[in-house]
Specification:
The structure is a homodimer. Chain A has about 280 residues and is an alpha/beta fold. Chain A folds into two domains: about 120 residues, Rossmann fold (3-Layer(aba) Sandwich), CATH 3.40.50.20; about 140 residues, LpxI C-terminal catalytic domain (Cytidine Deaminase, domain 2). Chain A has ten helices and 13 strands. In chain A, α1 links the parallel β1 and β2. In chain A, α8 packs parallel to α9 and α9 runs parallel beside α10. At the A-B interface, α7, β8 and α8 of A face α7, β8 and α8 of B.
Chain lengths: ~280, ~280
């Protein structure tokens, strides 16, 4: 990954990147990868959301969500050029959102009704761009994160699984068109669960009790039809495979070019070990 | 309710009615009401699904779901003219479905993939009609079951609640169009939960943990856009009000003319006692 054309004193490989870091290991992966490309990185970590290990050895600031004014001023001071949103964020509490004047002005404009769904993140992106920063997607920084078409491990879906996948795609896309969720679970033609704000893990957790005997179901995750790919692309990693297996599913299908696969090698290994298929599927847009 | 024009020896108020009885109190309510109209009733009770109190003092047979041939033969022997499906049925286990030859022929035709969703019930209705019975809806027998427009108790939705209702209607209708579910919960513009096979009670049970502080959410139940009103209309009663209150919701909206309200007086009393609105809403078809 490192750009070997860069030596000491070479121009940087790109403008300084600020990572607005949610939970999980994705922010640290991005930070490492981008620094490996010779770019400077600055992490904005959020109290109670970002894993403390994420910022180890990387320039950073800890902040509250409500401190938009302070954060944006700091990004200017740091000479940041590009900004990326990385990792999931649990819905912030009211205390975390306690707004500074900049945040208050922002909330007054977008309305607190938008808080918690994609509307909020889209508004955040606009706000950051209005301040002169360029907002990029994770897949712009690390192309290999983007899911490609085809099986990830040894197994592939059979004709029955393909039918369940098609049904789940239909349902998940319809929900996504309404900006509700990105996932659905279908078993033997029956929709066991659809995802709203609870998230994929919670949806999977209830599937074991809803499943019927016989062939297991499939989890499908697709991006919303009009989704900005810089925001909250469906993401899966080893944990998703493990939770799908625990729910009795036989496989997972995720949108090729429209979702992020964190650590493809580890996902393939987990899928093979647990006997699930994981497959990237093309979705006509 | 009793038809006072009928005396001993009068012609019956209608053909003998068979009630295919699911769980809850609805089958017994229907049986009492229809007998009060002077009609003969025969109940088909299903082992493990029908409340034993339902059949007390009413001609009946206990059966398995898989015994379609036996059931239909018995309905002919009893001189049944009309059939109604009443009360919810949990997904039958494989043992309960162990088919007689008639059921096997039926399953071979509709395909076991249809088991568990509306497709199965539609196929059951066709099968019963092909045998010469007329299948009617609960609202054909007991008109006051059908939800009418307007508040059921003292409270009515305010403008904020109306917005959440509109959003939930949009989501529930889209899911219904895909034959997935009939319900959604929205709070402050955010879709907290959408219903698939888990049912309304299970959906409500997860909402308390997903809700944000502040104004509570609303539950909306609507029929599927192309739903046969003789099958599985959305139904609510006192239990739904209680579970919605426990989930922190502020109200419930159900489709006027497209849902069943079991015991309107008791629902109004529960809604007033618990401080929720319950409202029948018109949905443009």
């Amino acid at each position: 990954m490192a750009d070997t054309t860069k030596g000491a004193g070479s121009p940087p490989a790109g403008p300084k990147l600020a990572i607005l870091a949610g939970g999980g290991t994705l922010p640290a992966r991005i930070a490492n990868a981008v620094r490996g490309q010779g770019r400077e990185v600055f992490i904005v970590a959020f109290d109670g959301h970002t894993d403390p290990e994420t910022v180890a050895g990387v320039p950073h600031v800890w902040s509250r969500f409500g401190a938009a004014g302070t954060i944006l001023r700091r990004l200017h001071e740091e000479g940041v050029g590009e900004v990326v949103l990385a990792g999931p964020v649990k819905r912030p509490s009211f205390t975390e959102l306690m707004p500074d004047w900049r945040t208050a002005r922002f909330l007054a404009r977008v309305g607190t009704r938008a808080l918690g769904d994609d509307g909020l993140l889209r508004a955040v992106v606009r706000e950051v761009e209005d301040d002169g920063f360029r907002v990029v997607g994770l897949h712009d920084l690390l192309k290999e994160l983007l899911t490609v078409a085809g099986p990830v491990g040894r197994l592939a879906p059979d004709a029955d699984a393909e039918r369940d996948i098609a049904r789940a795609v239909e349902v998940a896309r319809a929900l996504g068109a309404l900006d509700v969720g990105q996932g659905a679970v279908v078993q033997q033609g029956i929709v066991l669960a659809v995802e709203a704000i609870e998230g994929t893990d919670a949806m999977l957790a209830r599937c074991a009790a809803l499943a019927r005997p016989g062939t297991g179901g499939v989890l499908v995750k697709v991006k919303k039809p009009k989704q900005d790919r810089r925001i909250d692309l469906p993401t899966m990693g080893v944990t998703t495979v493990e939770k799908a297996a625990a729910a009795g599913l036989r496989g997972i299908a995720i949108e090729a070019g429209g979702s992020l696969l964190v650590d493809r090698t580890a996902v393939a290994e987990a899928a093979d070990r647990l006997g699930l298929f994981v497959v990237g599927i093309e979705i006509p847009q």
